[in-house]
Amino acid sequence: MKFIKWLLALVVMLILLVTVYLTVFFDPNDFKPEIVDAVKKQTGRELVITDDLSWTFFPVIGINLGGVSLSNPEGFTPKAMLEVNKAVAEVALMPLFSQQIEIAELSLDGATINLVTRKNGTSSFDGLSGDNSKKAATPAAETSSNAKLNDINIGGISITNTQINMIDEAKKQTQVFTLKSFTLGEFALEQFAPIAFEFSATMPDMTVSSEGKGELKLSRDFTQLVVNGLKIDTVVEGESIPNKKLETSISLATQIALDKQQLSVDIAQLTAASITAAGKVGVNYATKIPQINADFQVGDIDLDTLLPKTETAAATEQAPAASTQAVEPDLSALKQLDVKLKLTVKSIKVANLSTQNWLMDVGIKNGVLVLTKLNADLYQGKLLVSAQVDARQAVASYQFDKKVTGVQIRPLLKDAADVDLLAGTANFDVKGKGRSLIPEQLKKNLLANGHFDINDGALYGVNIPQMIRSAQAKLKGDLSPETKEERKTDFSSLTGSFSLDNGVATNPDLAMSSPLLRLAGKGTANLLTEALDYRLTTSLVSSLKGQGGSDKDALAGIDIPLAITGTFQKPEYALDTKALLNNQLKEETDKAKEKLKDSLLKKLGGF
Fold first, then answer.
1. Model pTM?
2. Does the pLDDT value for residue 52 go beyond 80?
3. For residues 207 and 201, is the Cβ–Cβ distance under 8 A?
């Protein structure tokens, strides 16, 4: 027992002697010139320490320093790369004897970092690293790997007023990143500690401000890091931001398996503008390319509210000019991704087009994006798409298979393209492939084949029976004004197939039928110019009764040529009256011949 007392007294005496020695005979400021010279030799930079260094002792040992600056390379502006107003590091002395680290305080205030990139490509980092630093790192790393700590306790960490200025002289741009504050509360292994931060950034085209708080815990074996209740609120402002301002908020919990290099994030709530979402993300970063698995559930998305209509219209007007200078999008980043994403969305509205109940499975690996399936409700019908984009070449290639069933085509066309041309219940399928993602090149290079059928619908902008009736009246010499009727032609079915090549859709077998008339023919639709060119033949089934005609119409059964030209927005319909007259005359001639034949037979007594 006496031995233990004497041992403790000896330890205390040694600590006192060390303290007296360091205080009286060892002044850390004596080493300032040596530190400055060492930095100069290693980096060629000037290190300045204007304030005196000072010790702190029992029950903590530490050092306070301030007025520290490290210069940029010669000729750079600003001259200083690093400036520190004040830094404090204090470690509890006694726990070190039992392999425990107890940090009383770590604080940094007023640090400014100026990172400059000059026009010739040189930067503030040039000359900071060397062979000596690499060689020195190896034994240090080995020593730290062999060391074992029983515990770590931190009274608190505080970083305030830290600013990073990123200066690009070639672009004449300066980006400023400011960490206004970062705090870690009382921390110990296996216990949650509070964290908080406040951050802002100023860039040429936007400003960002963000703040967050939560709590973290580190396992005793340093293999598990857990972050709970982390809530981050961010505001982004700038001319390039939708509506010039975007507010986001996220609440999440994270678990990181440091030994297995795996991370999982549980996002309880994510909001951006009016969009809300939740989901889970898993990352395995032990592989060369991190493997990411994500599953998100998203609410209503109204993209139209993110861009004012005036800006959308302006962008549309400028689109043709921009397309002449368009370049292929750089998709090389897809080669560095290994992602699987499942996404459900309650509804999406874009360009006034509304869809609901999205379900999507996407995979990205080795530069290839595969859309395994995309299901959505579309105007009382269903949309089903599968697709692939191959970005392994500079010009991306793609292929797709798209099916639409039971869709109400009129509101879809009006919302999507402001075209009131067609109504009915549509079924549509198309398979295609192509190269290039530039809009104009995409239309030119797309090769596709498909089929469509529309039931119980109407063709708007033209009343074919009225056109026939009007032409018939004029042929008989009736030049009275036409009666005004709705410009619509009802049909029971409209079917056809098509192929797409070099921006032109060819439809060789358009067929329309109704109780009143039949229509058949072929034509083309140019996706680049939106020009229509159809040559069709219309024939009446029996009469135009119910459309202003007689019980037995003179044109019943006669083929009547019909041409459709113009554009998608303004189609033009025209009957070939000359061919109509020729067909009618032929019909009348045939009838006259039959009457003459019958009359002769009667006069000859029926022979």
1. 0.72
2. no
3. yes
